[in-house]
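**User:**
My hope is that you can spare some time for a protein that puzzles me. This is the protein in question:
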Amino acid sequence: MPEKQPAPSSHDMPQEPAQADRFCRARQARSATLLEDYAELIADLLASGGEARTVDVARRMGVAHATAVKTIARLKREGLATALPYRGVFLTAAGHALADRVRARHRLVVELLVAVGVPVEDAEADAEGIEHHVSDSTLAAFAGFLQGRK
C-alpha cells in the first residue's frame, strides 16, 4: 500500500516553476482586470441607455475623466472598443464577448458566495475582485457545487 503524503504545512515552499507560474497568472489577471471592468460597464451602459459616454464611464468607475480616456484608448488599441466623436464608446464583437464572459463569471461567483452564507451586498463587492482571478477549473467546480445543491 503506497504511503500517504502529508499535507503541506504553511512553511513548505512550492517548487520554483509552480510558484513562478502562480505569480505570472496573478499579474496577468491584474493587467486584464481593468479592461474587463470597463468592457462590462460599457456594455451595461449601452444596454440600459443606448450610449456609453466617457464622462459616464468615468463617473461610474469613480475615476478622473482623463483616466477613463486613457483606459478607453487601451480598449480601442486591443480591438475591444471603438469611439465616435460626440457619440461615446461602443464595444466591438470581441468587447461584447469579453463583457459577457466577465458578467457570467461575476454572477457565478456571487451565487457561490451567497450559497455559503455571504450577504448579497458583500458577495457583490467581493465578486468584483474574485471574478478576475479565479481559474476556469475553479469556476467549473463552483458551478458543479451549485448544481449539486439544486
